[in-house]
Amino acid sequence: MLQWHIVCDFDGTITRSDVIDNILQRFADPAWEAVEDQWLAGNIGSRECLGRQLAMVKATPSELLGYFDSVEIDPAFPDFVDHVRELGASIEVVSDGIEQAIARILSRNYCSLLPIIANRLRQAGPDAWSIDFPHASDACRAASGNCKCKSTQPGKRVLVIGDGQSDMCVSAGADFVFAKGRLAEHCERQGIPYARFDSFSELPALLARLPQAVAAPAPHYSLESQELFHHVG
After folding, report:
1. Cys staple from 11: which of 18, 101, 170, 216, with CB 3.0 to 4.6 Å?
2. Can you list the pairs that 215-224 forms with residues at least 24 positions away whose Cβ atoms lie under 8 Å?
């Protein structure tokens, strides 16, 4: 039986802000912004972007942990996780961010058992850092640190939840997308079936409107269903 597998972004999706951007704003040389502009323009991939930016960070472990402990998530996210599990769907947090930050933030919000696929921060000195990419792929079209397309599972329909550039590639092959921000604009331009949302509190109702919901096989989405969801929210 086909089931749903949910690939959920972290920064700007589960959280209200981007953890790495906030680290850079607090602790990095201002030159990180020029590297960001190169990535946004498509001149470099996120793997190169993150590697160069994290090398500019000067922060002690306690300073980073203190920042991680200040990050707030969408308060409806833990209940959403419980809801999709009750419906029989699988869910992973798949991020081009930092695994240690995600694990600490989710654990503080009672989501410690969620699978996390992300990049890993490595200490390179008392206040110096580098980043490892255990989930990178040389075949990744977006040259991402974490190739999210590898997170899709054979025999399962894929629902992507995200907000930005790192979610665009995997969204192209998804069966459906719940999107906010730049990802919603991308789905609109590319004709990708999606629903726009602002909070996880909206998603149980949107899940129920997918054909046969998430607990059973769904037929391929028709143009009519795409049109319906394009105008949600």
Report:
1. 18
2. 215/3, 215/87, 215/88, 215/89, 216/1, 217/1, 217/2, 217/3, 217/157, 218/2, 218/157, 218/175, 220/175, 221/175, 221/176, 221/193
